[in-house]
């Protein structure tokens, strides 16, 4: 009876440790992915602003045109 109880206790501890380590790994992955998502959202907002300026701001349009060797007439 004592041996069966000891085996059961070790089995429970083993299962719980494995579940804890899996959960811990998933929490760390979730944190990494959240940071990556935030970085991509920030980059997306920056690109959207740049696109808006390239479509609407004549000074930005001229600056970018000069970079590729195109001279725009006013």
SSE class: mainly alpha
Low-confidence stretches: none
> Total strand count, please?
0
Count of helix runs:
2
Q: What portion of residues belong to β-strands?
A: under 5%
Largest sheet, in brief, is: none
Helix content: over 70%
- Give the overall shape, derived from the CA principal axes: rod-shaped
Order of helix and strand elements from N to C terminus: HH
Average pLDDT confidence is 91
Distance between the termini: 95 Å
Radius of gyration based on Cα positions: 29 Å
Q: Please, could you describe this protein's structure?
A:
This protein is mainly α and 74 residues long. The protein contains two helices and no strands. α1 crosses α2. The radius of gyration is 29 Å and the shape is rod-shaped. It starts with a helix and ends in a 7-residue tail after the last helix.
Topology:
Elements: H1 2-56, H2 58-67
Helix pairs in contact: 1-2
Structure keywords:
about 90% helix; about 0% strand; mainly alpha; about 70 residues; rod-shaped
Give a quick precis of the structure.
With 74 residues, this protein is mainly alpha-helical.
């Amino acid at each position: 009876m004592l041996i069966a109880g000891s085996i059961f206790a070790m089995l429970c501890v083993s299962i719980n440790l494995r579940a804890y380590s899996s959960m811990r790994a998933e929490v760390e992955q979730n944190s990494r992915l959240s940071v990556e998502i935030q970085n991509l959202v920030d980059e997306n907002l920056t690109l959207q602003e740049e696109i808006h300026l390239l479509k609407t701001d004549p000074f930005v349009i001229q600056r970018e045109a000069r970079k590729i060797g195109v001279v725009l007439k006013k």
